[in-house]
Amino acid sequence: MDSFEYLDDKQWSLLWKRYLEEAFVFDPLTIHEICCIFPIPEKKGVLIFTDTDIHFSKDNALKTLHHFSSTHSFSDYQVLSTCLKKLGHFGTYKMPWVCPYFALFPLEAREQSAWINPLKIKKVFNYHGRHYALMTNGLCFVLPVYRRRFIARAEIACLVLATIRRGLFHYALEGEIPLDFLYLPDTPFAKTLGKRPCLKAFRTSIGEINRAYQQTYSLYHCEPLMYDPLDGQQISWL
Known about the structure:
The chain is α+β, with helices and mostly antiparallel strands. The protein has one domain (about 15-225). The protein has 7 helices and 10 strands. The chain has helices spanning about 15-20, 60-70, 75-85, 145-170, 190-195, 210-225, 230-235; strands at about 25, 35-40, 45-50, 55, 95-100, 105, 115, 120-125, 130-135, 140. It has a 7-stranded mixed sheet, sandwiched between helices. It has a 3-stranded antiparallel sheet with strand order 8-9-10. β9 (about 130-135) and β10 (about 140) form a beta hairpin. α3 (about 75-85) packs across α6. The longest helix has 23 residues, at about 145-170. The radius of gyration is 19 Å and the shape is globular. It starts with 13 loop residues before the first helix and ends with a helix.
């Protein structure tokens, strides 16, 4: 540990340059699970890391996630975020992006934040007074937030992921607590998550998030059409 390479999303480095040179152009159809997304310091765009590859998108993280969600027919992040806030069990800010297969949580304010898959974190460690996270794919990055906040955000992301999985797959998957619906890897960080109180009990009934999402989605996308004065003029067959 005398010297090791790590990413800092606030500072350009040779490691950024190397990863950017290795990156493929972002194509959501070629990606099944994202390990993390990092905004590139001093440049436009983000790097998307998977287990084996690096991809580059010229858009920011939110637009990149929206593109990924649309391609795979996953939930609309803005609608899901609004829904989770209304339910009141998952906090009121820094909402995770979640699909039925994995989750990502933002480290800071959404527009310029890195997004991390909590189940792809191998460990968090301290080195010379700073905390770092090591991912299962070998990527290491400096934490811009306190360790306890990092763990808390990861915990909430896992809780939402488990809750959505229970709502969708409760006929196929058996379980009583969130941990039963998560596939925790054999890593030090996963062992930490396994001891967290939020993952010992569900906060909502089966399917509550899914039902709330459908209602919120309908209001978010359909209500403007209901009050569009031009809409009735355009639909002559009603």
